[in-house]
Amino acid sequence: MLCTILGAPGAGKGTQALFLKDKLGVPIIATGNLLRDAMKAETELGKSIKDAMNSGHLVPDDLIVDLVSKRLAEEDCKNGAILDGFPRTLAQAEAIDKIFPVDIAISIEVSDEEIISRLTGREICTKCQATYHVEYNPTSVPGICDRCGAMITRRNDDDREIVKERLVIYHSETEPVKKHYEDLGKLKIVVGQKEVADTQRLMAEAVGVKYDNN
Ligand code: AMP
Questions:
Q1: Residue 154 has what pLDDT?
Q2: pTM to 2 decimal places
Q3: How far is the CA of 87 from the centre of ligand 1 (A)?
Q4: What is the CA(214)–ligand 1 centre distance, in A?
Q5: Are 42 and 99 in contact (CB under 8 A)?
């Protein structure tokens, strides 16, 4: 099953992708992580996208479609994948649907106010990408991931002003992607809940798998 998780930055796409990965047994393709890895490794791609990434703007469609389609052609994606953070524009959705049609698009809906509160306190594991919140969901030991023991960090683009810019871009560029999948009869809406487990239950329902909180 090829499933995409749509939603504003901070809606919980990464957390829910990890949950679905275990349920569906397919890999996650998180475009933001692929791009951050390229930046860290200072590849040609990494250098060319640095300014866009750091200011919260989107990287060019052709570049990201190329990256995702190459990844989807790999052996471990033969039974599908979970796309996190892609497609983010109508052009990306139309392009990928021609090569690898998406089976289901789940949009996680969270208010802008809640997004700002979540992202300005967000912390992320440098290794397994588990996310925490300094106030609402802190790690047991400050700075260390509960899940895998690696160090946690903050993202540059989680700065308040950049978050606001990312939300503007989300509403103008990514909202139309929802309509695209709605027209294809592939859209499921999940209202993001306060408790992660409650959102997981709704996610399981959306993809038609059994939910057990283990
Ligand atoms: P994310 O980790 O999904 O919040 O993505 C972080 C940043 O990576 C975004 O603000 C964009 O600069 C870039 N990015 C990630 N996915 C895409 C995409 N599908 N299209 C364009 N830019 C993207």
A1: 95
A2: 0.91
A3: 9
A4: 31
A5: no
